[in-house]
Amino acid sequence: MLTKQDIAVLSDLLDQGLHPIKEDLQMLHKEFIGLNNKFNGLRQDMNEKIDGLREEMHAEISRLDNKIDTKVDGLREEMHAEIQRLDNKIDGLRDEMHGGFAEIHTILNTDISPRLKTIEDCYLKTFERYSEGAERQKKMEEDISVMKDVIQEHSVQLRKLCS
To answer: What is the pLDDT of residues 117-147, one digit of tens each?
Structure first.
């Protein structure tokens, strides 16, 4: 069991051993406070610079917005003028096209349709002749086939008679 004197000696020894650590901790604490103050100063400087850059950026964005709006307005006016010009040109082309359609319609009715009718009439007559000729040819082929069979049969019978 430890006596009061033993505990006092141990306490003194412990204090002596911890004293350099306390001094180191106090020194580290002071350095930490100094670094923290520097960090806070840097942060404040950075925030001031960021605020300045934000103001510059907003001013530049505003300037660019105005410049873009001016360009867009100019382009819009040019576009409307070009659309009007093209509308006028389309109207002229549409009128020309309708005139051309009328001319084509006249040509179709007076020239092409009568010719097509003549061609159709000739084609139909030719088709009828072809159909009749094809039918006659088919019948002749059938007749020839029957004649071949008869001739072959007679040929066989003649051979038998001759032998």
So the answer is: 888 888 888 888 888 888 999 999 999 999 9
Indicate whether this model's pTM tops 0.70: no
Token pair in block for residue 125: 């007559």
**Looking up tokens 């610079």, which residue turns up?**
49
Q: What region, left, alpha or beta, does residue 137 occupy, with left being phi > 0 and alpha being psi -120 to 50 degrees? A: alpha
Residue type, 52: G
How open is the CA angle 39-40-43, to the nearest 5 degrees? 85
Q: What share of the chain is helix, strand, coil (3-state, %, to 5)?
A: 100, 0, 0
CA distance 1 to 145: 143
| Measured CA distances, 5 to 2, 12, 14, 135, 163 (Å) | 8, 11, 14, 145, 163
